[in-house]
Every structure is written in structure tokens, then in C-alpha cells.
Amino acid sequence: MATPPSRPKPPVNPVHRSQVTWQIVVPMALFGALILGAGIWLAVTASGHVSQTSALASTSLIFILAPIILVGGITFLVVVAGIYLLAKALNIIPFYTRIAQLFIQRLGINIHLLADRLAAPVMVGRSRIAGWKKFWQQIRSLVKFKKEY
Predict the structure, then answer these.
(1) Is residue 51 assigned to a domain?
(2) Is 2 inside a domain boundary?
(3) For 81-96, what is each residue's pLDDT tens digit?
(4) Cα dist. 82→48, 65, 69, 90, 109 in Å?
(5) Is 119 helix (H, G, I), strand (E, B) or coil?
(6) Is 42's pLDDT higher than 80?
(7) Are 73 and 66 a contacting pair, CB within 8 Å?
(8) Is the pTM of this model over 0.85?
(9) Are 77 and 87 within 8 A, CB to CB?
(10) Residue 93 lies in a domain
(11) What's the rounded Cα separation, in Å, for the pair 89 and 86?
């Protein structure tokens, strides 16, 4: 019985492996241990005294709210800067949009003229063919008319 083929193993770059270890695995492990240690410390210190638990709760509330307030302040500043820059841009934009509109309009007219020039020989040829068909149709109708008499 044949053995199934083994999966190919890509070559591993030792520099990449070292970078993954130091840039991903080690920081994640350190912060995980830090959070686990903080949880254990809170559980041990809070179990004895109720008044100390209240102080720790207030401290943790500050640590929870501080990043939220910081992110909210940065977001507020970005929105205010965006409104200010948009108001400044609205004074400049109409001039340049009119230039762009005129350029596109001019381009459309040139494309239309080019299409008319390209279609002109076909239109002239078909017009002449239609004229000759009508001419011979009328000649045939006259000849048929005279044959009846």
C-alpha cells in the first residue's frame, strides 16, 4: 500500500522566526502575565478590607475612563479639524470644479466631433446606396406601369 505524499514544508527563515518571537510572542506573554498578576493582586488585596475595595474600584474606574476620554478628545479634535478644513476647502473647490467641468465638457465635444468624423464616410455611403435604391425602385415602377398599357 502506498503512503500518502507528505505536505511540502516551506523553508523557514531564522531571522523571521526570531522577529516573530520578539515582536509578537514575547510582548503578548508579558502583557498576559501582567494582566493575570494584576487580577491576582486585586483578588488578594480586596478580600481583606471593604474600604480598600472601594478605593481600588475608584482607581480602576479611572484607568477604564482615562483611555476612553483620551480617544474621545482626539476624535473630537479630528472632527473639528475636518470641519474647519472642509469650510476652507469649500472656498477653493468651486473654482477648480468649474475648471474640471469645462475640461470634461470640452473633451466630450471633441469626442463627439471625432465620432461624427469617423461616422461620416459610412453615413455618406449608406445615403448614396439608399438614393440609388430609391432611384432604381422608381425606374422599375415606371417600367411596370408602362407594361400594363
Answers:
(1) yes
(2) no
(3) 999 998 888 888 888 8
(4) 51, 25, 20, 12, 37
(5) helix
(6) no
(7) no
(8) no
(9) no
(10) yes
(11) 5
